[in-house]
Amino acid sequence: MTEGMTRAHLAAKAAIEARRPSLPVGLSIAIVDDVALPGGEPLRDRKCAEVYGHWLDLARAGDVVGVQNYERLTYDASGEVELPPGTPVNEQGTAVEPDPLRWAVSYAFERSGVPVFVTEYGVSASDDTLRAGFIEPSLVGLATAMAGGIPVLGYRHWSPMDNFEWIFGYSRHLGLHSVDFTTFERFPKPSAAAYAAAVAARRTPADAPPTV
């Protein structure tokens, strides 16, 4: 599979560059914030090398690397560490943490050497208070990475609305809006207002719409 996907990426990259040489081209990869407790470093490093290494090396020949991040996993010498009782979790069963994105973009840039675009970041949760509460601290973490020299070109929250999520169907809830899948009417959740407030707080005069 790796060989086939690599050949497809390189062929697509060549085709795009032949038609639009000025268009930035790259690849996107899902990266977990892998954290090692004392003794867990070899396992963590092996996982990162086996899962991300090839793709981030391949990204070096591009113009940008896309990062998708949804979770943090912690390892000790025995393997993945179980979450303490009472830890808020998402619908995948991993902890709802606001800071994994900072590590993911930093790792992607340090390994690939090309600018980063956050192509997906969010939380799968039916309890929207979890999503609404982690948006602002997540963006603070991203800003910290940028202040430290990580070139981040853009950010896309996933997702604007609840959607059909691969093998999980409609059982996963990542949206800032809920959706009536019969009428397709959309309803903003509190997290939509939280995201709008976070964007507005970071707006610069250059972002303001022109006056009429």
Question: Topology of this protein?
Answer:
Elements: H1 2-19, E1 26-30, E2 33-36, H2 41-59, E3 64-69, E4 72-76, E5 79-80, H3 100-112, E6 116-121, H4 128-147, E7 152-157, E8 177-179, E9 186-188, H5 190-201
Helix pairs in contact: 3-4, 4-5
Tell me the number of structural domains.
1
Radius of gyration: 19 Å
**CATH architectural name:** Alpha-Beta Barrel
The total strand number stands at 9
Q: What sequence of helices (H) and strands (E) makes up the elements? A: HEEHEEEHEHEEEH
| Spatial gap, N to C terminus | 54 Å
Number of H/I helices? 5
CATH-assigned homologous superfamily: Glycosidases
Instruction: Give me the secondary-structure category.
Output: alpha/beta
CATH domain class? Alpha Beta
Q: Note the overall shape.
A: globular
Explain this structure.
By secondary structure, this protein is of the alpha/beta class. The chain has a single domain (25-202), classed as TIM Barrel (Alpha-Beta Barrel), CATH 3.20.20.80. It has helices at 2-19, 41-59, 100-112, 128-147, 190-201; strands at residues 26-30, 33-36, 64-69, 72-76, 79-80, 116-121, 152-157, 177-179, 186-188. The protein has a 4-stranded parallel β-sheet, covered by helices on one side. It has a 3-stranded mixed β-sheet with strand order 2-4-5. The protein has a two-stranded antiparallel sheet with strand order 8-9. Strand 8 (177-179) and strand 9 form a beta hairpin. The mean pLDDT is 94.
